Amino acid sequence: MKGYRFETFRINANEENKFQQLLDLFVQLLTYTNGDATEALDWLNQLDRKYNLTNDDYGMGDFIEELKAKGYLSENPADGSFKITAKSESTIRKKSLDEIFGQLKKSKPGNHATSKFGKGDEQNSDTRPYQFGDTLEQIDFTESIRHAQINHGIERFHMSEEDLHIRETDFKAQTSTVLMIDISHSMILYGEDRITPAKKVAMALSELITTKYPKDTLDIVVFGNDAWQVEIKDLPYLQVGPYHTNTVAGLEMAMDLLRRRKNSNKQIFMITDGKPTCLKISGKYYKNSFGLDRKVINRCMNLAAQCKKLKIPITTFMIASDPYLQKFVEEFTEMNHGKAFFAGLDNLGSFVFKDFESGKTKTMF
Predict the structure, then answer these.
(1) What is the pLDDT of residues 154-202, one digit of tens each?
(2) Which of 41, 273, 279, 328 shows its CA 20 to 30 Å from the CA of 342?
(3) Which of 26 and 102 is assigned the larger pLDDT?
(4) Are residues 232 and 340 part of one domain?
(5) Whether residue 234 is found in the same domain as residue 178
(6) Long-range CB pairs of 23-32, under 8 A, 24+ apart, other chains included
(7) Which residue range is the domain that position 147 belongs to?
(8) Is residue 296 included in any domain, yes or no?
(9) Phi (first) and psi of residue 96, to 5 degrees
(10) Contact assessment for residue 341 and residue 242, using Cβ atoms and an 8 Å cutoff
């Protein structure tokens, strides 16, 4: 007779811990190599030779084979090159969320709760008498029947408008966010890597919204000489290019994306390290890397005013400490009635998180 034999599953704890330690380091390296798995593995091998990350029981070859077996890595049989999988991309986002937002993702998933009652998403325990304008869907028939029996007796059932009661609902504010990321050449100038922290924030914010606020929307726009939209899965592969900073193109695309969203709450987050230096006029680029060009600045200010009129606040995260740039940011923020943060590379994530979370209890009608 055929059957199955069940035995206790045993795992080598040392090997499992070693794999997890190497995986954490591998994921970090992928962020710096723009998702290049081969380069990240090369760096990991160099670190292994210098710091003895592996041993005779568990070597780097074992780690690579386990990456493939667990679906983190795929190998091209033709040339032996490696490529990360969707599982790795998801892991990078989760690690970024853990690193930047700490224990936040462990809280109960939901939406941005407000203190207002209304035609909302979730019922609460409160009821009230029916008022003109309430919809049929809001009527609590159990409570209404109970009041009808109290008011008219149980011998002959009768219900009037005065018996109707409404079950209150909590309104959950849905927010549409566009995150703009500067990928101009200045993001890696002067020996300072500014694009990696920006990518980490974008990945953490995308993971936060998709897990904790699934009814929200997040669009990501990168801007250099031009602006274009990228998908969440593309974030690990973002690279800085030989670009100027066309902030106008980024803002125009962000506004266009938000026009298509039906939510009443809309906002733009912009991560940049420099001043606007570029415009595209009649198919040609107008560039000026020296100083604050008034022709470029005026276009930015006009868009800031348009966003204010459309009730789209812009929060600017300036990851540069140049004093002469502060004046532009202050003028831009005043024109939009938005916010500005002069954030360092080590606290950029906390600034984005605090502003994103603090603004979610507001409801715009």
Answers:
(1) 777 878 878 888 776 655 578 999 999 999 998 887 778 888 888 988 8
(2) 279
(3) 26
(4) yes
(5) yes
(6) 23/67, 23/72, 23/91, 24/95, 25/53, 26/67, 27/88, 27/91, 27/92, 27/95, 28/95, 30/84, 30/88, 30/92, 30/236, 31/92, 31/96, 31/196, 31/199, 31/200, 31/236, 32/193, 32/196
(7) 116-171
(8) yes
(9) -65, -40
(10) no
* 84 vs 197, residue with greater confidence: 84
- Tell me if residue 246 falls in helix, strand or coil: coil
E-only strand ranges, the chain: 73-75, 82-84, 112-129, 165-173, 175-182, 217-223, 227-230, 265-272, 278-281, 284-287, 314-318, 339-342
pTM: 0.72
Cα dist from 114 to 169, 265, 268, whole Å: 11, 13, 21
Residue 23 CA, chain-centre distance (Å), reads 23
Residue 91 falls within a domain, yes or no? no
The secondary structure of the chain in percent helix, strand, coil, rounded to multiples of 5, reads: 45, 20, 30
Indicate whether 279 belongs to any domain: yes
pLDDT at 291: 72
How far, in Å, are 270, 337, 339 from residue 294 at the CA level? 20, 21, 22
Structural tokens at position 256: 């266009």
